[in-house]
Design brief:
Elements (H helix, E strand, L loop, with lengths): L17 E12 L2 E12 L6 E5 L14 E6 L4 E8 L6 E2 L9 E3 L7 E9 L2 E4 L3 E3 L6 E10 L6 E9 L15
Antiparallel strand pairs: 1-2, 3-4, 4-7, 5-6, 5-8, 8-9, 8-10, 11-12
């Protein structure tokens, strides 16, 4: 006997990871009628592998040299997921030192904005999480320094002025100290 099955398709919802088609085939032959059951699972290759977040109390952007704790919550039944990192948000490399299936990643000290995602296997597909941008504030440098007697002829104090690049906003969250 020969069994021919037509093509299977399914319109996935964007958050749906997979769909299982179950079937029963009835076969008639010299031994009578027999039933065989089975199933086919279709995996949505467009589904997100899961959600990435920054663990509280960390906040973004980080101060230059800061680090963060990142967490991953899988959406799908993933096998062997791995953290990945990128300097440009396009080309990612695996972070094997974090191990497989670890829901937490501790960044090292970061001196530039870095991008993270998780890649994992679901069925025969590789699913990717959304990309998480861990932004890092620029370090500042002294562009100009002025020290003048005030008033110039009979000084009562010295007026000091420092120009920083980039210009620091009043709510700059990173600690800094300027000593004269």
């Amino acid at each position: 006997p020969t069994l021919e099955v037509g093509s299977l398709s399914y319109d996935f919802n964007t958050d749906e990871c997979s769909y299982r088609f179950n079937y029963t085939a009835k076969i008639s032959g010299p031994c009578g009628e027999q039933s065989v059951t089975g199933g086919v699972t279709l995996t949505n290759s467009e589904a997100s592998a899961g959600e990435l977040d920054v663990f509280t109390p960390d906040f973004l952007p980080l101060c230059n040299g800061g680090d963060a704790i990142l967490t991953f919550t899988p959406n799908c039944d993933l096998r062997n997921w791995t953290w990945q990192q990128s300097a440009d948000g396009v080309t990612f490399v695996d972070l094997p030192q974090n191990g497989q299936n670890n829901p937490t990643y501790y960044t090292n000290s970061l001196g530039q904005t870095t991008y993270y995602r998780v890649a994992g296997a679901a069925g025969s597909c590789t699913l990717l999480s959304e990309v998480l941008e861990v932004s890092v504030l620029e370090e500042f440098a002294i562009l100009d320094f002025v020290a003048e007697y005030d008033p110039p002829c009979e000084p009562e104090f010295i007026r000091l002025e420092v120009t920083l690049v980039p210009e620091l906003p009043n709510d700059y969250p990173c600690p800094y100290e300027i000593e004269f």
